[in-house]
Write a structure and sequence with these properties.
The protein is mostly helical. The protein has helices spanning 5-8, 12-41, 56-100. The protein has one domain (19-100).
Length: 101
């Protein structure tokens, strides 16, 4: 209750940057995981996991690898981007303190 709206919502610039980072990393991670799957299994990743031509083990295995891999990549990239954004955002504040002193 005692928190201001500024604390509850991230600023619009970070929301936009975070979305772009997440989309880019998601695309890149999916391509890398599909490539790795093909190298490891010798088969293309299942295009339609719901198809009865794809075995249950293969469909579930690919879903687990893809889900975990993409989420880990997204978390690492988003945290890294957020740290850089916070450092970049702090530069004007530090410069202002130097000028005032």
């Amino acid at each position: 209750m005692g928190r201001s709206d500024d604390v509850d919502k991230p600023d619009m610039a970070w929301r936009l940057i975070g979305a772009v980072v997440a989309l880019g990393v998601g695309y890149g991670a999916r391509k890398a995981i599909e490539f790795g799957w093909q190298k490891a299994t010798g088969k293309k990743p299942p295009a339609d996991p719901n198809s009865l031509e794809t075995s249950l083990a293969e469909a579930v295995g690919f879903a687990v690898v893809l889900g975990v891999g993409m989420e880990v990549a997204r978390i690492v990239a988003t945290r890294s981007a957020h740290k850089r954004y916070q450092a970049w955002k702090a530069i004007p504040e530090k410069a202002e303190r130097v000028i005032k002193s």
